[in-house]
């Protein structure tokens, strides 16, 4: 920590640095683009991974907090930039040319806060309609449903996107740019399509069988969770985490609990930590099992679904006995877990650990070695390590490109630093590598479970927490590993019982953004292979 | 007339009054013997092969996948033929939240289903907006957008609840008048007239 603050002070003398765990710089808007380039390229910092852009409305001003991470030095910093101009037209320089994923993140901030990013090549609304009135995450947003009514009429579509820039005199200039070229043949895929894994829509420009460009349309399941959280107390916000990426329900829940406990200074018992980690790893196995099943089904191997769901059902049984639900468990709570483990838990987990190796062997025999599967997966959709970092593709997809990005290792939380497991890394970067990484992660999760199942300590499962939980004023950021990658949470409190701002940085949003990059020049049938291998969950993208 | 299946006693069902009402309507309509017998035959076939549309937006859709797998096995009931095209499906299981942007798409899917068509609102989001009801971008229940036949509560409902919901639908199908009834769908025509789609731009 002291180390990184020194480095920053050396590189940027005079820039204020604050924050306890994660240093936060405040950079003037005029210098932001230049600073961003130096942060990325400096040999001492190498901030090459943009974790998220948190849009903020501080009432008197609008702005963004950029969270950056260095893949080489494993350090996280925040950069605060306050927008120039009034609330009508707040402006910030774009960093879309510095980090590739920023193009999409800036669109998201524009959609929610109306901050215009100068020179961003694609400044459209992301989740909401073109004609949507107002910016929903602003504090003065009018939620009257009559302004933005539910309509059964088709929404207005546009072939153009906007690019804002400033001319020499400092005036804001808006330029309309075509999304596709005029003579492009555009095919619409989704939102109702069995292979898009939910309601995602691709506008695909094709040249014969070859994909020229994909324009990803999101927002078909945008439920405004971040805004909803601002009107709920801290314990009430927890249950939304289950409904984002419903396969990582435990993991996401765990992340928010850690964040709130960190902010409130609550120490939880060892027993609760072990239970939470075991639930996380069980979820990971169940999630990857379902991925394998549905992915193979997309590729035409329907039978695999029945094999993989067998293991998943066994895990759901274990969870049901303890948590009382098959999905959306709402099990972790602030201070520990909701209820103690079921009496059969240990025996059930042991029974599961016995069948997992046999099942993985079976999956490999049926699918992995199959000549059709190999032809369809190997060498398709190759993502280089540099691109994985620039597009912020984390989780098994990022690790398949050779980027060690497991937050359980990089930013250990809970008891992960004590556990013995390997980070699964492949270097091919193709769809097959992404598939195999997930398969091997099941083995590693089983290894973690093996270490813990006989060592669940006695003790209380939930510590006493004040009935009305108030957090001190301040801001916190937490990175954890969901089933699909790095899951970031930013929390800002103004000292009341409700969060002032809760920003969710899901791993699936960049995964959807990279589809365009990966499919260019590939055949249209490979779109299904590539999209499936990235394993995005649409409610996690849209939130 | 007690409408039930072989394995389930009549008293074990809920909402029997609704089905009894339908039976009463059917008896009062005074269909002749031949058409009535033909109706029965056709409804027997229809109620045992209701094909769903593959439609899911969020969590409930995953439970629907579980429903298709070996453990819950909806093939036992003749529902396993999930079609990806609405033109080949009999009913749609609205599994998940319907948000503002999805509403026109969802309505178009419904319009594309071939008559006679049915809708099951599955999960609290589809019924009322559920936990997201207060959001700025969520439709507060799908009943304003399409007519709904069966509601299955839960967040998400267990696969067993979904089975029960579809069984209720199949019971409803059994007591419908086919000729001059559902194959014409007067009620739906009324609904669509009251909820018209205006000037579609291209």
Tell me the number of structural domains of chain B.
1
Overall number of strands of chain A: 17
Q: Distance between termini of chain A?
A: 32 Å
Quick one: how many beta strands of chain B?
A: 4
- Uncertain segments of chain A of ≥5 residues (pLDDT<50)? none
Largest sheet entry of chain A: 5 strands, mixed
Looking at CATH, the homologous superfamily of the largest domain in chain A is Cytochrome-c3 Hydrogenase, chain B
Indicate the multimeric state. Answer: heterodimer
> How does the overall form of chain A come out from the CA principal axes?
globular
Features:
heterodimer, A: 543 residues, alpha+beta, Beta Polymerase, domain 2, Cytochrome-c3 Hydrogenase, chain B, 2 domains, five-stranded mixed beta sheet, three-stranded antiparallel beta sheet, 17 helices, 38% helix, 18% strand, globular, B: 202 residues, alpha/beta, Rossmann fold, four-stranded parallel beta sheet, 8 helices, 41% helix, 7% strand
What is the topology?
The complex is a heterodimer of chains A (543) and B (202).
Chain A: H1 2-11, E1 17-18, E2 24-27, H2 32-41, E3 49-57, E4 62-69, E5 76-82, E6 91-93, H3 102-113, E7 116-118, E8 160-166, E9 172-178, E10 185-189, E11 201-207, E12 210-217, H4 225-229, H5 234-242, H6 249-264, H7 270-298, H8 303-323, E13 332-333, E14 336-337, H9 345-368, H10 371-377, H11 385-390, H12 395-399, H13 407-410, H14 431-453, E15 474-481, E16 486-493, E17 499-505, H15 508-519, H16 524-534, H17 538-542
Helix pairs in contact in A: 5-6, 6-7, 7-8, 7-14, 7-16, 8-9, 9-14, 14-16, 15-16
Chain B: H1 16-28, H2 33-47, E1 52-53, H3 59-68, E2 91-95, H4 103-112, E3 118-122, H5 124-128, E4 150-152, H6 159-174, H7 178-182, H8 186-194
Parallel strand pairs in B: 1-2, 2-3, 3-4
Helix pairs in contact in B: 2-6, 3-6
